[in-house]
């Protein structure tokens, strides 16, 4: 077996293992009914979680502005589609939408891919892979600002050629500098 194919196969086996043991820091608690009410019907992984556990993650917005829930919608070999739901003390629970770039077209959608969120910094990231190898797609970074998320950076690689990077920066929030 060629070395490249062997590495890809091991990578897929690793992803399969990660997908089957979806982590949750919710400690087994069910989602509040008001949060469940705004989950889109397309979030089938949440509704039919094969692990028998709640696979969502909770996070806190900076400055005690509220909480967010990251809910898995679909789980595939190369990526997980998720939505982010926000609850603030004096506002109704809300399904958040995010500006996204898809092959030259800007749109707004509640669906993100392979989401990470850091409570301490308030940084939310999304990595969308255009193919299962993960050598092309978009990487987006949002910063929590109060109760909203502001896009800070968008990098993309549009050519799926089997090689890593480089991703090019398509958007950089005013005041930020490329790293």
Number of E-type strands: 12
Structural class: mainly beta
Oligomer state of the chains in this structure: single chain
Separation of the first and last Cα atoms: 38 Å
Beta-strand content estimate: 35-45%
Low-pLDDT ranges: 6-28
How would you sum up the major sheet?
5 strands, antiparallel
Number of separate structural domains: 1
Overall shape: globular
Q: Helix and strand succession? A: HHHEEEEEEEEEEEE
Number of helical regions: 3
Mean residue pLDDT? 77
C-alpha Rg (nearest Å): 17 Å
The percent range for helix content is 10-25%
Protein architecture, described:
The protein has 179 residues and is mainly β. The chain has one domain. The chain has three helices and twelve strands; from the N terminus they run αααββββββββββββ. Strands 1, 2, 3, 4 and 7 form a five-stranded antiparallel β-sheet that branches. The longest helix is centred in the first third of the chain and has 18 residues.
Write a compact overview of the structure shown.
The chain has 179 residues and is mainly beta. Helix content is 15%, strand content 39%.
